[in-house]
Structure formats: C-alpha cells, structure tokens
Amino acid sequence: MNLTYKNISYSKVGSGPHLCFLHGFCENSEIWKDLIASLSSRFTCIAIDLPGFGNSSQMTFGSLSQVANQVHELLVSEDATHSIIWGHSLGGYILADYMEQYGSELRAAAFVHSTAVADNAEKKVNREKTIRFVEKNGTKEFFRLFIPGLVAPSHVDKCREQMTAIVTLTPTSSVIAGLEAMKNRKDKLDVLSRFEKPVFWLTGEEDTHYPKEEVYKLAALCPISQVSVLEDVGHLSMLEDQKKCLHEVQTFISFVEAVSSAQLSNG
User: How many domains does the chain have?
Assistant: First the structure.
C-alpha cells in the first residue's frame, strides 16, 4: 500500500510488529523491496521515501534532526513508534538522531552499512568539493562516479542497471542538501552508550565507506549489540546478496525477540 503523510511518501505492507526502513543517500525505498517481500508475512513493514528522494522528491531535505522529527511524526500517525528502525548509510545517520530524541520509544535500532561518527576534517573537505562539483557540472558525471563505489567489484555489473534507475532520479537540489546534512552531522557515540536496547551493525567485507574495524568499535559502545560482516559484499548488501542480508536481518530480529522475552521474565 502506497501512502502519503504530510507529502512524505511511504509504503506499508504486511502485519505484525513494526519494522521501519530508511534508505541511504541518492536512493529511495525501492532498495528494501526484496527484503520486505520476505519479511511482510510476519511484520508490518514501513519503507519511507525520505524528503527530497523517491516519491518525496518535491520536499526539501533539511538537517538530520529535522528529518528524524518528520520520520517520528509519520510513525506516530501509524501507531508504529515501537518499531525496529533499519537505517542504510544516510538512513543510519538519521536513525542516530532519532535515537537521541525518541530512543525510549524504539524496540531496537539497526545500522545497515552506516555509522554514528561525524565526518572528519578530510571527509568534510571532500563533501564540500563534491557539492561544488555538482553545482558546477550537474549530477550526470557525479552519478557515473558514485554508483560503482556502492557495491563490491564482483557485483557492479549485476547491480548497475538497478542502481542507475534509482540513483538518477535524485534531483540536484537533494544531492546538495544531502551532502550538506552529512557534512554537518555530529558524533552520536554518547547516544549509543545510553541506548539500552539491541543495536545491529551490518556491513560488508568490501564496504569502502565503513570498514569493519570501525563497526566493531561502535558496537562495543552499545550495551546490547550484534555485528554481522558479509563476505563479498560492499555497501549495498540488500541488493548485492539479498539471501545473506535477509538471513542476518532475521537473525537480529530473533535476537531482539529473545532479549524482549528475557527482560519481561526478569520484569
């Protein structure tokens, strides 16, 4: 079912406990489609097109905090705040802000190829250079360079057509706004250490954006965490190896359910 809340487009399928999916930079909710098809028999799955992207492209992408507030309003309208939120890359940055503001309402949090660390000085400079490049040259050349770096080399040919179809829908204004928001984001390490619910970290052995060593350090800050590192996978496991990704997602959900049961028993 395709729905809209205050001009934010989202899909809602299935029944049962809620799962909410936030896509990454220059993506839309389509990246979750295959995963959701396998989960919706047991869960109510809400996949949001973030402001400025997908069918919400007419909206402006603001700060990460603003977008987290918009996501929360939408979930309140669906009575779905007690959910597991899955954030891919940029979606994970939004998730970290969401946890800071509304963490007490969540069931669990899942960072999919993402981080809670701010850009370092070098990355900030590179973001700024990319903004200037897009302002001067438009998005065509940016997208050409951007897409291959999203997946492991062995998956480039398989994923190129699908990713090109998704990525190239992104308006220039949203590319720039997204880069600005990512450049200006803050560290959320204290948020992780205070979040006393399960946190999932999923990355790929060949993810050049978030090395597994960084992910392990972040997981160590969380009171309750689970880490999965997938072989022969880059930055988009849900497209590169949907079967492996689904298995790890289901394993974490089972972990969340076990933790919830144990906490109830210890009541």
Answer: 1
Q: What Rg do the C-alpha atoms of the chain give, in angstroms? A: 17
94-150 pLDDT tens trace: 999 999 999 999 999 999 999 999 999 999 999 999 999 999 999 999 999 999 999
Cα angle for residues 92, 13, 197 (degrees, 5° grid) = 40
Distance, in Å, from the CA atom of 118 to the CA atom of 216, rounded to the nearest integer, reads 16
Collect all residues with Cβ–Cβ distance below 8 Å to 127 and sequence separation of at least 6.
119, 179, 180, 182, 183
Whether 244 and 202 have beta carbons less than 8 Å apart is answered as no
- CATH number, position 208: 3.40.50.1820
Number of other residues whose CB lies within 10 A of the CB of residue 136: 7
Q: Taking each helix axis from N to C terminus, what angle separates 172-183 and 121-137, rounded to the nearest 10 degrees?
A: 170
**Whole-number Å distance between alpha carbons of 238 and 69:** 26
Domain with 128 in it:
2-266
Is 50:67 a contact under the CB 8 Å cutoff? yes
